[in-house]
Amino acid sequence: MEIRKPDEFEQELILKLSPQAVREGTAGESAPDANKTKKLIESVLQKGGCYWAAFEHDQLLGWSLIGKGKDSFTDKPFGFVYELFVVPAYRGKGIAEQLLHAVCDQLKSAGHQEVRLSVHAENSAIELYKKLGFTEKTFTMKREL
Known about the structure:
The protein has 145 residues and is of the alpha+beta class. The chain has a single domain, classed as Aminopeptidase. It is 37% helix and 24% strand. The protein is built from four helices and five strands; from the N terminus they run βααβββαβα. The protein has a five-stranded mixed β-sheet with strand order 1-2-3-4-5. Strand 3 (59-70) and strand 4 (77-86) form a beta hairpin. The longest helix has 18 residues, at 8-25. The chain is globular. Residues 1-145 form the N-acetyltransferase domain. Keywords: Acyltransferase, Transferase.
């Protein structure tokens, strides 16, 4: 398996699959169309974010969208994982873990001392994140009215 930045054609494929990633990442709570998803992603890319993707024989296995952020209380900069997705046919093979290690290395190389991500409370990836050393920082809570 090779983890690298995707070329323009590969990035377009990722953009086409991203609505599925958002839908699954939010446990079906959000189902944006392709245009809305593209606008969200382009906002991250315009601010210096980038994709890293896993390939096997030029077959896309999964990807991560990373960028940077700044803590609103301390102004401390951090790296941010906006998206981590493995194509369903390739799940259960450790690809997400390898992708997350690779993007954390990239963020560290870019000078970040911390990496953050947001995850929906019902997303099964929480266990992976905990396994890789991520801890809870904040909780967003809700109450139906």
